[in-house]
Amino acid sequence: MKKWTKAFAVLVFTMLIVSVSALGAPETWVVGFSQIGAESEWRNANTFSVQHAIGEEPSLLLVFSDAQQKQENQIKALRSFIARKVDVIAFTALVETGYGPVLEEAKKAGIPVIMIDRDVAPEDRHLRLTIMGSDFVEEGRKAANWLGDFLKEKGLDDGEKQINIVELQGTVGSAPAIERKEGFEEVMNVKHPNWKIVRSQTGNFTRSEGKAVMEAFLKAEKNIDVLYAHNDDMAIGAIQAIQEAGLKPGVDIIIIGVDAVKGAFAEILAGRMNCTVECSPLLGPQLVQAIFDLRDGETLPERIYTIEGIFDQTNAAEAFPTRQY
Ligand code: GZL
User: Fold this and answer.
1) Cα 275 to Cα 152: distance, rounded to the nearest angstrom
2) Predicted pLDDT at 308
3) In the beta sheet, which residues pair with residue 165?
4) Is 17 among the domain residues?
5) Tens digits of residue pLDDT in 135-185
């Protein structure tokens, strides 16, 4: 009899330990993350940052979906997350419009939505909790202000002679494409009446399309002074087109990109590119913290900004060794 009493006592004690330790452990949350694709160095770094940050947390389980640049795939993924009753949805919007109905469904299902990187349209923003990521308008302003300073310093802009700019836009309808254009033109229209965007077309944030569109620009325009590309991947593709046209990128044509990916640093250090405006993809840790805050019942701020810089031939060599993407 004594033997059984001892065994029973050990069992009760063990169950007590397990239940007490379980009391302290955070509730496990399932996170549905809909990523738009793998179109650029930036996107791949963003995906890795989110997957790694969530993977490091035992109390978070990730359900990941890659929409391959198709909005219909994203909407299907969001609906599958709702059907699975995930605890929270995180996603970046391929383009701003078209997500209203599925966000209404998430709200009806009581599933909170956190936007990372690209936001949805203003009329749908009441359906998501917050947006975390860069200020794309400010990135456009930074690009234009850098160009103004650079042209002045090099004696290339007397304020009278027309400066011909070609622009490689990002994905049509996406927040970064809309807002980087807005920020650049805001500065140009106020400070530089002699600047003119002579050609502007989407390269869809990819190297291949950036190269193809730049080839067309070079055929159509005999005197291009500046290329403003909404991301570095398109700038890198354009650099190949400029070289194949027998011109010196970074010298004959000043080249500005956005993202500050390693590929851009390599071009800047080689003298083929002049500037890249940082747009950090490393949003994983901030997303995990926002999910923890949500799980702890806290209210998330309307906007969570990332801190960013700008790199050119004066500071790229020093920064390059510690770049994470
Ligand atoms: C910006 C991000 C953009 C990058 C591109 O936050 O959405 O998408 O600038 C990427 O490189 O394709």
Assistant:
1) 15
2) 86
3) 197, 226
4) no
5) 999 999 999 999 999 999 999 999 999 999 999 999 999 999 999 999 999
Residues sharing a CB contact under 8 Å with residue 232, sequence separation 6 or more, in sequence order: 40, 41, 42, 257, 258, 259, 260, 261, 263, 264, 276
Residue 151 inside a domain? The answer is yes
pLDDT range class, residue 14, cuts 50, 70, 90: low
Residues lining ligand 1, CB < 6 A? Answer: 39-40, 42-43, 117-118, 133-134, 176, 205, 231, 233, 258-259, 279
Q: Is residue 99 part of a domain?
A: yes
pLDDT in tens, 70-94: 999 999 999 999 999 999 999 999 9
Atom of ligand 1 nearest to the CA of 133: 6
- Indicate the pairing of strand 130-133 with strand 310-312: unpaired
Out of 42, 44, 276, 282, give the residue to mutate to test ligand 1, the one with the largest number of ligand atoms within 8 Å of its CB.
42
By alpha-carbon position, which residue is closest to atom 8 of ligand 1? 43
What type of residue is 163?
A: I
Q: How far is the CA of 295 from the centre of ligand 1 (A)?
A: 29
Q: Which residue has the higher pLDDT, 37 or 16?
A: 37
At 62, list the tokens: 């990730």
Residue 218: phi and psi, rounded to 5, are -65, -30
Same domain membership, residue 287 and residue 164: no
Q: Are residues 154 and 109 in the same domain?
A: no
**Are 153 and 262 part of one and the same domain?**
yes
Domain co-membership, 140 together with 271: yes
Atom 1 in ligand 1: residue holding the nearest Cα:
176
Same domain, 75 and 119: yes
101 and 157 in one domain?
no
Q: Which pTM value belongs to this model?
A: 0.90
CA distances from 314 to 56, 187, 311 (A): 37, 23, 8
